[in-house]
Write a structure and sequence with these properties.
mainly alpha
Length: 246
C-alpha cells in the first residue's frame, strides 16, 4: 500500500509539473484521473495536499514552450502564473475526492437517520414485546382463573347432585316414617273402633234385655250407647283425616 502511494506521489508530481509548464488551456483530464486513483487508494484530502506541496516544493518546473528554452535553468521560485495553474490542477485533482467526501457525508447523514429510525423501531418493538408478554401473562392468568372456576363449578355441581340425592333419601325416609306412623295410628284407631262397636253391640243386647224389666235402666243404657257411637264417629273422622295426608 505504501509503495502504491509513493508511486502515485511520483506520478502526481510529474503530472502537475508538466501541467504548470504547459500553456493556458491545457487538458485537465490527467488531474481528474489522478484524483480518481487517490480515491481508490484511500488517500484523504490532507495527504493529497501534502503530496501536492512536496511535488512543487523541491521540484524544477520547466518551461517547454519552445525548444530553445529546453536547456534553461529552473527558476528558484514559482511565478504567480505557475502557482495559479498548480492550484487549478490540485482543485481538479481533488474534485473526485470532494464528491466522494460529499457522498460519504450524505451517506453518513442517511445512515444516522436510518440508525435513529432503527433505534425508534427497536424501542417500539421492545414495547410491543413487553405488551405482548404482559398480555400473555394476563391470558395465562385468565385461563388459570377459568380452569379454577370450572373446577369450582364442577365441585358445586357435584355437591348439588349429592344434596339432591340426600334430599331424596331424606324425603323417602320421612315419607316411610310417616307412612309407618299412619299405619300404627290407623291400627290403634281401628282397634279402638272395633272395641267401641263391640261395646255398642253388647249394650244393644243389654238394652234388649233391660227393656223387658225396667225403663230407667233402659235410658241409662241408651245414653252410654250414644256416647260410644259419638266416640266411634270421632275415631272414624281421625282415621279418615290421617289417611288423606300425604
Amino acid at each position: 500500500m505504501k509503495h502504491n502511494v509513493g508511486e502515485f506521489a511520483e506520478r502526481y508530481g510529474l503530472a502537475v509539473r508538466r501541467y504548470v509548464a504547459q500553456p493556458r488551456g491545457s487538458d485537465l483530464r490527467p488531474a481528474l484521473r489522478l484524483g480518481g486513483e487517490a480515491v481508490v487508494l484511500g488517500i484523504h484530502l490532507l495527504a493529497m495536499a501534502q503530496i501536492h506541496e512536496r511535488s512543487l516544493g523541491g521540484a524544477e518546473v520547466w518551461n517547454v514552450k519552445s525548444k530553445a528554452n529546453a536547456d534553461s535553468k529552473p527558476k528558484p521560485r514559482a511565478s504567480s502564473r505557475q502557482t495559479r495553474r498548480s492550484e487549478l490542477f490540485f482543485s481538479e485533482a481533488i474534485l473526485p475526492m470532494v464528491k466522494t467526501h460529499q457522498a460519504a457525508v450524505q451517506c453518513r447523514s442517511e445512515l444516522g437517520k436510518l440508525t435513529a429510525t432503527l433505534t425508534t423501531r427497536n424501542r417500539e418493538l421492545a414495547e410491543s414485546r413487553k405488551a405482548l408478554k404482559q398480555g400473555l401473562k394476563q391470558r395465562i392468568h385468565a385461563e388459570g382463573a377459568l380452569k379454577e372456576s370450572g373446577k369450582r363449578y364442577a365441585c358445586l355441581v357435584e355437591s348439588s347432585r349429592e344434596l339432591k340425592m340426600d334430599l331424596r333419601r331424606l324425603t323417602q325416609r320421612v315419607f316411610t316414617e310417616q307412612e309407618a306412623e299412619r299405619m300404627i295410628v290407623s291400627r290403634k284407631l281401628q282397634n279402638e273402633i272395633a272395641q267401641n262397636l263391640l261395646g255398642i253391640s253388647i249394650r244393644l243386647s243389654a238394652l234388649k234385655y233391660e227393656a223387658r224389666n225396667s225403663t230407667s235402666g233402659f235410658r241409662n243404657e241408651i245414653n252410654q250407647t250414644q256416647q260410644l257411637v259419638r266416640q266411634s264417629a270421632r275415631s272414624l273422622t281421625i282415621v279418615a283425616n290421617s289417611l288423606k295426608r300425604p
